[in-house]
Amino acid sequence: MPRRSFPADAALSTWTAPDGWAHRRFERAGAGRGRLLFLGGRADSIEKYLEALDEWHDRGWTVAAFDWRGQGGSGRTGTGDVGHLDDFAVLVRDLAAFWAQWRRDGEPCVVVAHSTGGYLALAALVGGAIDPAALVLVAPMLGLRNPLGAWIGGGVARLIAGRGDLARAAWRERTVARAVRARQRRLTHDPSRFDDERWWYEHCSALRLGPPSWAWIVEAFAATAALRADPRLAAVATPVQLLVADHDRLVDSRAARAVAARLPHGELHRFGRDTAHEILREADPVRNHALALIDAFLDRHAPA
């Protein structure tokens, strides 16, 4: 079962950032289609997307991924299981350094990025830190879902964060059945794929990351707002595909749609009520449709 085992021909290794931080890295050689780098979201690990990586590999891609600094198998930046970070720029620098070493001239090199990884990939692209032939953003975090709106929500987050240690958890994670079920509905309509995460945590508890810190929340509001307002979006020459779940309960789908409209070569696809945040881990009808859209986009803009 590709979701719960690593392929025998895949390589797990360590990639070291310029400042010495060790990142867990995954790579699997393909059949000459090109090179595809997958970037997960906050608290994700490589294991959650083995199924998608396997399918892209079947299409001939050399596939790669790494766990972001502070999560998965790449150590921790907070205390205990709190996902603490107060500056996303360090993650953009990690991506830029990895990309510079990983990309190859003479073959198409593309990026597929989910959620927080989507923000980081687009920020790196806008800043000239990466130069993929094409970029796919899946449920990208270009704003946090907040009933108060981005401006008020960010202000409230700063107010609450300032009342204590910024590195403290922003909420308490509940493990009762009702809370777990609610979390599943926020992420995917497929209980089996949702259960893969628990399965991996039971086999390797070190992969688990808990809630973000208040510093992370404040930075997420500020960094995504800055990217949405960046005038360089209008000058991006790279084709960018955005797959957006209109009823996403974690990230702001309206923000993603607004960014898509500003990209000169943006391609937006919207998903309805049958789609939660983790589009590539959704039930088969949704997931297969998303993968087909990605394949067609990459065939057009990054041909072998």
UniProtKB/TrEMBL annotation:
Classification via SUPFAM superfamilies: alpha/beta-Hydrolases (SSF53474)
Pfam families per the UniProt record, alphabetical: Hydrolase_4
Domain called Serine aminopeptidase S33: residue spans: 33-284
Annotated InterPro entries: AB_hydrolase_fold, Hydrolase_4, MAG_DAG_Lipase
UniProt protein name: Lysophospholipase
Organism in which the protein naturally occurs: Sphingomonas rubra
Native organism taxonomy: Bacteria, Pseudomonadati, Pseudomonadota, Alphaproteobacteria, Sphingomonadales
